Amino acid sequence: MEPRPLCVPSCADWSAAVTWGETAEAEDSAAENKGSIPAVTMQSTTNYLWLISDLLGQGATANVYRGRHKKTGDLYAVKVFNNLSFLRPLDVQMREFEVLKKLNHKNIVKLFAVEEESNTRHKVLVMEYCPCGSLYTVLEESSNAYGLPEDEFLLVLHDVVAGMNHLREYGIVHRDIKPGNIMRVIGEDGRSVYKLTDFGAARELEDDEQFVSLYGTEEYLHPDMYERAVLRKDHQKKYGATVDLWSIGVTFYHAATGSLPFRPFEGPRRNKEVIRRWRV
């Protein structure tokens, strides 16, 4: 899922965020006004709840919200799947769950639980919360208009490579690497730590296995996929793990220079997802 540019405050601003007490008060208020049939402002699972207004990112098949554990008040990112997600083949729906369950690395956003939304019964992924937003958020700051400072760029380089190496150990191809899918947190030493996220397009590949489905974001898309998805050229090419290498290269270029190396086909625009074909 490519979230729209994440509208989140910097790490230092989170002291002004909604408190657990305010969240509980909102839940009580909603309960008191059941008779007036208000618009749904809060959703929950057995162990977690979130306000609809606390949207972190939005995609075609799911939204991501800032949520809390009902007992502890700890913050999490909750990914809530919508009706469109169920139009995909069942094996495709299950891929993200299965992939995340296998991964355990400091440079990959951690999955804590898979639950169901209480009313809709839609699947909900409960994941590590990254309050500093994404690499895209960082690159949108005016101070980074011409790229990240060298020391920060080297952190991005190190962390993304480490996360990708972990994926390759499990034969997993991400298929949508870009700044918006690389989250940022602050480590104990005060330095940035970058983590790969959004495995909605990810899948496992055996050695030399290939695939034909299209998924990605135009500006970061492998040339062979770009020809089919954007230029509409009809060819029978198959794709492998190298699609991630191309996307990583474009992402690093963007981080180093503050600009994209290629002009989008129909003129400048940011992070526009290409059409997806849910096949093998």
UniProtKB/TrEMBL annotation:
Q: Does the keyword Iron apply?
A: no
What protein am I looking at?
Protein kinase domain-containing protein
Give the InterPro entries listed for this entry: IKK, Kinase-like_dom_sf, Prot_kinase_dom, Protein_kinase_ATP_BS
Any one GO BP annotation for this protein = positive regulation of signal transduction
Q: Cite a GO CC annotation.
A: cytoplasm
Query: Which SUPFAM superfamilies does this chain map to?
Result: Protein kinase-like (PK-like) (SSF56112)
Where it sits in the cell: the answer is: Cytoplasm
Q: Which GO-annotated molecular functions does the record name?
A: ATP binding; protein serine/threonine kinase activity
**Residues bound to ATP:** K79
Keywords, A to Z? ATP-binding, Cytoplasm, Kinase, Nucleotide-binding, Serine/threonine-protein kinase, Transferase
- Source species, please? Gasterosteus aculeatus aculeatus
The answer to whether UniProt assigns keyword Cytoplasm to this entry is yes
